């Protein structure tokens, strides 16, 4: 099953290193912290669109 994990590079709440535990997952790291969804909305949307095909 395809898995997409997104995270902020400096997120103290959910470190992106945790995503590396999911074998085969696609990891997309964004600048910033936990609020990257707001600061990088366009890129996030493009990544999800690409992942969903």
Low-confidence stretches: none
Structural Rg = 11 Å
Shape: flat
Beta-strand percentage range: 15-25%
Number of helices: 2
Topology order in helix (H) and strand (E) letters? EEHH
Strand order of the largest sheet: 1-2
| Helix content range | 25-40%
CA-CA gap between termini: 14 Å
Average predicted confidence as pLDDT: 91
Structural class: alpha+beta
Q: Summarize the biggest pleated sheet.
A: 2 strands, parallel
Number of strand elements: 2
Polypeptide structure, described:
30% of the residues lie in helices and 19% in strands. The protein is flat. With 53 residues, it is an alpha+beta fold. A two-stranded parallel ribbon has the order 1-2. It has helices at 36-39, 41-52; strands at residues 4-8, 26-30. The chain is built from two helices and two strands; from the N terminus they run ββαα. The longest helix is centred in the last third of the chain and has 12 residues, at 41-52. The two termini are 14 Å apart.
Layout of strands and helices, then pairs:
Layout: E1 4-8, E2 26-30, H1 36-39, H2 41-52
